[in-house]
């Protein structure tokens, strides 16, 4: 292999689950990658530990209190501490940066991810909410700037791997021209697969975050349990691969060994398989089009023994249909859905509402707010704000009428 300078990485959301998996790979390949900048939000001590191990040039925290703590803990290091949301955009777009890993959770990740796109970086996108909110605008910027957008959501990474090599940007003709008939988006079904609505009404946050196959942050774990994650992923796939929702079939596959498939018009179905470990898609995104060791246990098919498939239960889990509805409404509807879902998930985690009320709040926001064309970031962010606002009084109402 040629002797190249290590590539500089900005890791947005370094203290999270995706952040940890990314750092594990960076540590394994210090000859190839160097942590240039990293951000954290609440877990400042963990961020200090990351700075100690990787000595990035910059570390970004949300406020001055966090900065004071981080500076005190890293006084002997050469890391400069930066503060605030603007600093996230700066480190995402900074000239020395080659790769940006967008692993902040939720709408908070949109602006820095977009900054990386505008600066034409290679972006490893975990933060699906950014694409759900601003799909058209985001993809237009990718095309304009020539950024390399590599999905590291495991399903989308699998789909990317199952498509013929054609760069990282797709247009409306790309998939049909490659003979693609359908995308088969797999879902584990989450911890409540097989539950009926009555059973779902009694589930606790602890049960919801205990995913059977993946270890992830709290928000995405609840989304996986409600199938909102699959709904957001359906929208994510439509934008990433420039396809319509009708071209995507959701397939529940409880073992999470197949991470998604592509069905071709000659009858072939190509699947990407592996143990459920996010280091695989992250390593793929970092090294693309090469392959590097990700530290992932090789798949033992005899141990797996069986692969099952079933349709999703869209009656017990209405979030999937809500996401489809939001995508077909278009404009700001997916941003409204995303914001309402973020509010609902937090309220569920705080035990203010029941699990079955998550889709209720989302539906309320979609029904109440007018959908506008998502032609500017200001309009998208204003919709996000309005959705959060109108959710508050309805949350009170739901919490009073909760079946305990
Ligand atoms: P996590 O909760 O473990 O980590 C979230 C990260 O975002 C943390 O570093 C946190 O400090 C930071 N953060 C939180 N709120 C912030 C804010 N307001 N401003 C700035 N930073 C903030 O989440 P995760 O599981 O690592 O997921 C991150 C993203 O990746 C999500 O969008 C999720 O949907 C996506 N994703 C995760 C997985 C997974 O296996 N964990 C898989 C696919 C996609
Ligand atoms: Mg996923």
UniProtKB/TrEMBL annotation:
<feature type="binding site">
    <location>
        <position position="128"/>
    </location>
    <ligand>
        <name>1-deoxy-D-xylulose 5-phosphate</name>
    </ligand>
</feature>
<feature type="binding site">
    <location>
        <position position="127"/>
    </location>
    <ligand>
        <name>NADPH</name>
    </ligand>
</feature>
<feature type="domain" description="1-deoxy-D-xylulose 5-phosphate reductoisomerase C-terminal">
    <location>
        <begin position="149"/>
        <end position="241"/>
    </location>
</feature>
<comment type="pathway">
    <text>Isoprenoid biosynthesis; isopentenyl diphosphate biosynthesis via DXP pathway; isopentenyl diphosphate from 1-deoxy-D-xylulose 5-phosphate: step 1/6.</text>
</comment>
<protein>
    <recommendedName>
        <fullName>1-deoxy-D-xylulose 5-phosphate reductoisomerase</fullName>
        <ecNumber>1.1.1.267</ecNumber>
    </recommendedName>
</protein>
<feature type="binding site">
    <location>
        <position position="155"/>
    </location>
    <ligand>
        <name>Mn(2+)</name>
    </ligand>
</feature>
<feature type="binding site">
    <location>
        <position position="16"/>
    </location>
    <ligand>
        <name>NADPH</name>
    </ligand>
</feature>
<feature type="binding site">
    <location>
        <position position="15"/>
    </location>
    <ligand>
        <name>NADPH</name>
    </ligand>
</feature>
<dbReference type="InterPro" id="IPR013644">
    <property type="entry name" value="DXP_reductoisomerase_C"/>
</dbReference>
<dbReference type="GO" id="GO:0030604">
    <property type="term" value="F:1-deoxy-D-xylulose-5-phosphate reductoisomerase activity"/>
</dbReference>
<comment type="function">
    <text>Catalyzes the NADPH-dependent rearrangement and reduction of 1-deoxy-D-xylulose-5-phosphate (DXP) to 2-C-methyl-D-erythritol 4-phosphate (MEP).</text>
</comment>
<feature type="binding site">
    <location>
        <position position="153"/>
    </location>
    <ligand>
        <name>Mn(2+)</name>
    </ligand>
</feature>
<feature type="binding site">
    <location>
        <position position="17"/>
    </location>
    <ligand>
        <name>NADPH</name>
    </ligand>
</feature>
<dbReference type="Pfam" id="PF13288">
    <property type="entry name" value="DXPR_C"/>
</dbReference>
<dbReference type="InterPro" id="IPR036169">
    <property type="entry name" value="DXPR_C_sf"/>
</dbReference>
<feature type="binding site">
    <location>
        <position position="154"/>
    </location>
    <ligand>
        <name>1-deoxy-D-xylulose 5-phosphate</name>
    </ligand>
</feature>
<feature type="domain" description="DXP reductoisomerase C-terminal">
    <location>
        <begin position="273"/>
        <end position="389"/>
    </location>
</feature>
<feature type="binding site">
    <location>
        <position position="42"/>
    </location>
    <ligand>
        <name>NADPH</name>
    </ligand>
</feature>
<dbReference type="InterPro" id="IPR013512">
    <property type="entry name" value="DXP_reductoisomerase_N"/>
</dbReference>
<keyword id="KW-0521">NADP</keyword>
<keyword id="KW-0460">Magnesium</keyword>
<feature type="binding site">
    <location>
        <position position="229"/>
    </location>
    <ligand>
        <name>1-deoxy-D-xylulose 5-phosphate</name>
    </ligand>
</feature>
<comment type="similarity">
    <text>Belongs to the DXR family.</text>
</comment>
<dbReference type="InterPro" id="IPR026877">
    <property type="entry name" value="DXPR_C"/>
</dbReference>
<dbReference type="Pfam" id="PF02670">
    <property type="entry name" value="DXP_reductoisom"/>
</dbReference>
<feature type="domain" description="1-deoxy-D-xylulose 5-phosphate reductoisomerase N-terminal">
    <location>
        <begin position="9"/>
        <end position="135"/>
    </location>
</feature>
<dbReference type="GO" id="GO:0070402">
    <property type="term" value="F:NADPH binding"/>
</dbReference>
<feature type="binding site">
    <location>
        <position position="230"/>
    </location>
    <ligand>
        <name>1-deoxy-D-xylulose 5-phosphate</name>
    </ligand>
</feature>
<keyword id="KW-0414">Isoprene biosynthesis</keyword>
<dbReference type="InterPro" id="IPR003821">
    <property type="entry name" value="DXP_reductoisomerase"/>
</dbReference>
<dbReference type="GO" id="GO:0016853">
    <property type="term" value="F:isomerase activity"/>
</dbReference>
<keyword id="KW-0464">Manganese</keyword>
<feature type="binding site">
    <location>
        <position position="155"/>
    </location>
    <ligand>
        <name>1-deoxy-D-xylulose 5-phosphate</name>
    </ligand>
</feature>
<dbReference type="InterPro" id="IPR036291">
    <property type="entry name" value="NAD(P)-bd_dom_sf"/>
</dbReference>
<feature type="binding site">
    <location>
        <position position="129"/>
    </location>
    <ligand>
        <name>NADPH</name>
    </ligand>
</feature>
<feature type="binding site">
    <location>
        <position position="233"/>
    </location>
    <ligand>
        <name>1-deoxy-D-xylulose 5-phosphate</name>
    </ligand>
</feature>
<feature type="binding site">
    <location>
        <position position="224"/>
    </location>
    <ligand>
        <name>1-deoxy-D-xylulose 5-phosphate</name>
    </ligand>
</feature>
<feature type="binding site">
    <location>
        <position position="188"/>
    </location>
    <ligand>
        <name>1-deoxy-D-xylulose 5-phosphate</name>
    </ligand>
</feature>
<feature type="binding site">
    <location>
        <position position="211"/>
    </location>
    <ligand>
        <name>1-deoxy-D-xylulose 5-phosphate</name>
    </ligand>
</feature>
<dbReference type="Pfam" id="PF08436">
    <property type="entry name" value="DXP_redisom_C"/>
</dbReference>
<feature type="binding site">
    <location>
        <position position="18"/>
    </location>
    <ligand>
        <name>NADPH</name>
    </ligand>
</feature>
<dbReference type="GO" id="GO:0030145">
    <property type="term" value="F:manganese ion binding"/>
</dbReference>
